[in-house]
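Table S2 (text version). Query chain:
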Amino acid sequence: MSETKIVVACCQLSLAVGDADGNRAKVRSAISDAARAGARVVVLPELANTGYMFADIDELRAAAEPLNGPTITEWANLAAQYGLIIVGGFAESGDGDLVYNSAVLIDESGVRTRYRKAHLWDREKDNLFTPGSDLPPVVDTAVGRIGVMICYDLEFPEWIRMVALDGAELLCAPVNWPLYPAPNGERPTEIVKIQAGATVNRMFIAAAARVGQERGQAWLGGSVIVDADGFPLTEIQLDTETIVLATINLADARDKAISERNNVQTDRRPELYSRIGKPL
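Corresponding structure-token output:
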């Protein structure tokens, strides 16, 4: 029987290309701090082993690691040591010269799944990363069913819906959100989209983001844990390294009713949605 109430942590960090040892040390410290704070699930940013702003494919290939490389091996050891579920992003060296923007879900038994980002953002398309072609995974864990996707994947409602229909109670997303101007007083649209994805699917979503500057790119921060009604459970912090934590009750995500007569899954009419699957 899976646990119901659990503590989820999102580790908001400043990372850097070319500092593999420093990145690993920073992530290692954050995982340990989250575990000591009572976390059962720990989410790390996108490309947490390498940083993001690569000059070219040669620099990326030199930094990328295989699934059994030092970063994932260390995360697996930490998951076993603390009894954690860890979801984190990493640059993965694949077959031949291919490199993927990937994420793993690891528990005490080791790597449970690996996901390769399907929707590439901006310069990721410039002969850097190869897009993944598999659906986002949903894994049965000791705490419940957890889905995994990465950053720009969250911009596609169809992708989030697939995870929800596969029974995910919690969606964990490593992200790197660039800092863009926003009107005063407005919440960043990246967070608004996560709130929308959570409420229309009655599912918890946890996104761990980056902060700081990296080769001229400013990162937004804004790591957030959102409940099944679409409301943030954590304070939105945009400019500091931090760990945000929330206690969630996964049973809330198993109830898809939004009124006595409405249900976000059974009210669907997929026979009307055929156009969504067709290319433009």
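Notes on Table S2: Residues 110 and 246 are 24 Å apart (CA to CA). The chain has one domain: 5-277.
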